[in-house]
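Please check this record.
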Amino acid sequence: MPASLFRFMPALFVVLWSTGFIGARYAMPYAEPLGFLAIRFGLSFAILLCALLILRKPRLPARIAMHGAIAGALLHGVYLGFVFWVIHEGFPAGLTAAIVSLQPVLVAIFAALILRETVTWRQWAGIALGLLGTVLVLLPKLGFTDPGVTPMTIAGCVLALLGISAGTLWQKRFVGQADLLAGTLWQYLGATVVMLIPALLLEEGRFTWNPSLVLSLLWLVFGLSLGAIFLLMAMIKNGAVSKVSSLFYLVPSVTALMAFVLFGEQLELVQLAGMVLVGAGVALATRQGSTRQASTLRRASR
């Protein structure tokens, strides 16, 4: 791979990740969130299945495949299900990205409590900074003057954060050594099931098919569910995981900038300061993590 191309891959990955929130913002006025995600995950599963058959990848053992499906139900289903729901309800995309960016911090807490991993003073300091930053980001909205910012939508963001954190731990503990393509295939199967069932029970299947919805769906499938994964694989193979890890914490700011340019979502100075603290806190809390841990977090996140 040419060195000039490889140099831009981590930044491209961050931009791709950030566009996931923007894609949700474009799609949600024209579709119900659970049904939309069921279609997205189902298409991703079908495309990956074709790729695995063409590449003749070996099958995963049934036990690992089951754990992969559970991880996918949490990572993609619960996480993105609530992310899309709160954005569908009018919660700003930039604020959504800021809240769920605490995922590595929450994983550190869960790892200490559940997996009995040691959490250093540096990590606890990062946790405190990240929580303080999140409070500052939400502070101007806590009066609930924005119709999309309600106790329910904030709770939805927290549940999304819990979903991706729990899924990351599950992935780390039970699926970490599986082939990335095969593991991702089962993740999308689990995510499809966990979205399809509530979509059939709770939604009416209303879709307004127009260019915005179709383009958003295609972008989220090929640009995010597939493109970002293959880009991440290339970076892991070429040893850029640590660089990806550091750039990953720019996602809330990049998302907020995109949302400002595309949708006019305003951010006050205190919210910008909060985003800086969130990024600093997460970076500080995960700075001493091993390459293997960083690789697991990145692979499990999308």
Q: What stands out?
A: The radius of gyration is 18 Å. Residues 30 and 208 are 5 Å apart (CA to CA).
